[in-house]
Amino acid sequence: MEKTVFKKYGKKNLVGKPRYLKARIPKGDNYRDVKKSLRERNLYTVCEEAMCPNLGECWDSKTATMMVLGDTCTRACKFCNVKTGNPKGVVDKDEPRKASEMVSMMGLKYLVITSVDRDDLPDLGAGQFASIVERVNADHPEVKVEVLIPDFNAIPDHMDTLAKSNPFVVAQNLETVRRLTHPVRDRRAGYDQTLKALAYYKKAHPHIHTKSSIMVGLGETKEELVEAMMDLKKAGVNILTFGQYLRPTLAHLEVQKYYEIEEFDHLKKIAYDVGFDFVASGPMVRSSYKAVDYLNFLNEKEGKEIDWKK
Ligand code: SF4
Q: C-alpha angle 257/76/180, rounded to 5°?
């Protein structure tokens, strides 16, 4: 990997996390009550499973993320701690109802649905995503649904299947710059494949807002990050997020650099200069971090509620 500039934290500290990255454990009666009710109904959020430090902020803003299509991914990205294997075509047909129930139970106004990759399914999971979005849209017309999807191999039929269910935002993560895509991502994922999927949604379904995320700290240069931003902008992406890569276990890729808060701010400024509509950038920002903020931004800009379902 290319040598990166180690500033304040120095190379010997790369295995340790800067103070600002220490996880904040959510607490409070509201958190405990919601958690208890979710367990009683056998509902699980990614927010809890991943011990996301942003949980408190997201739940307070009535946003939560649900993982669907199981816990076993057919791919094996070198930054990700999700179990890899063959789920053998198993799909929980009750997930649409569970998603709808989660919205009711948590009083959500914004639901993010994400999944593992399911290369074992003929439609790569697009139909299940569509069923969930349809159900939540039907039961909760006031709620917006964002989907953080696998790339569906950028196959138009699969992408159309999902688009017809009318998600508010479709997100597909570029994850890293072109040069580092392999080894960072699974060999079946690709820099151009992600761009192709995002560009297709914007061209074929322009009413859908599109989003992507980049992790920093894997050895990328600023020039490469700017190139990635330009490529995403060319694909018509509306929303971009930057977050710090954190090594989940010693078996995963090493962190090459911990970015300073000011560097995240700088990336955000560049991204706005490139022309994205909305940018979130910070050490703990993840793709779904306070995803409702984009909706709030649109409402503020328009001075009214956007009727995106028309
Ligand atoms: S495809 Fe997604 S869930 Fe699967 S290993 Fe890669 S990052 Fe993790």
A: 40
Of all protein residues, whose CA lies closest to atom 8 belonging to ligand 1?
Answer: 80
Ligand 1 centre to CA of 296 (Å) is: 29
Question: pLDDT tens string for the chain (310 positions)?
Answer: 323 323 333 344 445 567 666 656 566 667 777 888 888 887 888 888 777 878 888 888 889 999 999 989 999 999 999 999 999 999 999 999 999 999 999 999 999 999 999 999 999 999 999 999 999 999 999 999 999 999 999 999 999 999 999 999 999 999 999 999 999 999 999 999 999 999 999 999 999 999 999 999 999 999 999 999 999 999 999 999 999 999 999 999 999 999 999 999 999 999 999 999 999 999 999 998 889 999 999 999 887 554 444 3
Atom of ligand 1 nearest to the CA of 189: 1
Q: How far is the CA of 84 from the centre of ligand 1 (A)?
A: 8
Q: Distance of CA 202 to CAs 170, 206, 293, Å?
A: 10, 5, 21
3-state secondary structure of 5: coil
- Locate the ligand 1 atom nearest the alpha carbon of residue 186 and give its number: 6
| Ligand 1 centroid – CA 273 distance (Å) | 30
Cα of 42 from ligand 1 centre, angstroms = 24
Element holding 66 (H helix, E strand): strand 63-68
Sign of CA dihedral 94, 38, 139, 65: negative
Domain boundaries, the chain: 11-302
Where does ligand 1 bind, in terms of residues with CB under 6 Å?
Answer: 73, 75-77, 80, 82, 116-117, 186
CB-CB contact of 5 with 18 (8 Å): no
Name the CATH architecture for the domain at 11-302: Alpha-Beta Horseshoe (3.80)
Q: Whose CA is nearest to atom 3 of ligand 1?
A: 116
Closest CA to 87 of 74, 78, 77: 74
pTM, two decimals, is: 0.89
Atom of ligand 1 nearest to the CA of 150: 1
